[in-house]
Amino acid sequence: MAIRTISDLHQHLQWAIEIEHGTIPPYLFALYSIKEGQNREAAEVIASVFMEEMLHLTMAANVLNAVGGSPRLDAPGVLPTYPTHLPHSARAFEIPLERLSPDSLETFLKIERPSDHQGQPEDDSYETIGQFYEAVELGIRGLCEQLGEGRVFTGDPGRQVNDRLHYRGAGRLVEVSDLHSALEALEEIIEQGEGLQHQQVWDGDQQMFHPDRAEVAHYFRFEEIRLGRRYEPWDTPRSGPSGEPLPTDWDAVHNVRPNPRSGDCPEGSEARRRMEEFNHSYSGILHLLEESFNGNPGLLEVATGQMYGLKQQAIDLMKLPSGDGTTTVGPSFEYVPARQRHRGKDAERRIVVVRDGPYLVYGDVPWCANAESSPRTAGRSPGRRPRSSRRKRATRSADVDARGRSRSATAHTPRSASTEPRPPTVHLPPTASGSTTEPVSSSGGTARSACMPVSARAGPAGSSR
């Protein structure tokens, strides 16, 4: 399917998001399967690739936003059922969820395999990810020649995720506003996967965990684990690595069952309950990512932080016996629709506060609105009633604006009898001062529920209150 229209371009850039996300669960599954304290170097390699896949996902969303599209992540098709194939590929190989092993490394090498540049760019039924991105690049260039850059890059610059969000991995986050920056973002994605100029071991960055060392591209990082040796500056793809050993103990990995499914566990069992909790958490992260790329870029730090927060849930599942006397359970990465996600009594009560940005209400937490200007809500799940119809009662409390003057605020609680599921509520900040708000709840479940302003210095961005 060639890219002939802006609509075609939107579709292919959405596919790019799905391709980048499709690699994340297999990489995390292998990473979490490593027993704690073991195989440190292999774990660092996989963690660094995961961080860069998040970067690629973000830049694909930046390109899509720049050309007037709307990135989608909170949708069933984005989180496939494993084993699967790379989305819209030639389906040359399957991608399972499996522990770190020589077999899983072979799969990762197939995912990251450099393009054969004797072949043609391919936008559908591609053999390598590089082929796909080359086809997208040709499509963008062609549309700009046909329509002019001004009619292609029509997106809102405010939807761009930028490097002010303190990306901590290797590489750089490119804001996209025109053809030059779009091609720059796509080239960064390709080079981190395949290497500089598509034919070198190195990707032009410094290592995430060892900033004094140059970094090799994803394909060659996995080669280092497979071959048990580091690449040196004089090494080439043909020579292979000749540096210091990179040992991996294949037995220091949990014997987790491949491609787990929650439905394979008995109803009401601990294994099923924990798997479902993990799936609710991961699906909630997809919701946060979608919100991040659709007008709330400050939420990306929260989403990434919560993805790291999944680690303990995943490790607990990696340790949990499956019941067959040999294997353990593992996380299944199954999509949970927004209307079925935990809320109310089943959800942890908390608010996540983002510096200079929105705050998120989780669980059955009273939400707050200033009497002068009610904060807007983003990311309502389908079928949610307007806020005004969900108000049951209000209690008066004191609030202080950016200048320290007292003003009235109203703390509203949702109708207690409602059982309608919903994802976390996203609120924009009530003032432009850089202050954020957090709930102050009294013990014993009393009716007191106030919104108190706190300085942005009170905690790091994305911290749970």
The largest sheet has its strands arranged as: 6-9-4-3-12
Number of strands: 12
Shape: globular
CATH superfamily of the largest domain: Ferritin, core subunit, four-helix bundle
Helix and strand topology:
Elements (H helix, E strand, L loop, with lengths): L5 H28 L6 H27 L35 H11 L16 H19 L1 H4 L26 H16 L7 E5 L7 E3 L1 H10 L42 H23 L6 H21 L30 E4 L5 E4 L4 E4 L6 E2 L8 H4 E10 L5 E9 L10 E3 L8 E6 L7 E6 L8 E2 L1
Antiparallel strand pairs: 1-2, 3-4, 3-12, 4-9, 5-8, 6-9, 7-8, 10-11
Describe this structure in words.
The chain is of the alpha+beta class. The chain has two domains: 1-336, Ferritin; 347-464, no CATH class. Helix content is 35%, strand content 12%. It has helices at 6-33, 40-66, 102-112, 129-147, 149-152, 179-194, 218-227, 270-292, 299-319, 387-390, and strands spanning 202-206, 214-216, 350-353, 359-362, 367-370, 377-378, 391-400, 406-414, 425-427, 436-441, 449-454, 463-464. The protein has a five-stranded antiparallel beta sheet, with no helix packed on it. Helix 4 packs antiparallel against helix 6 (179-194).
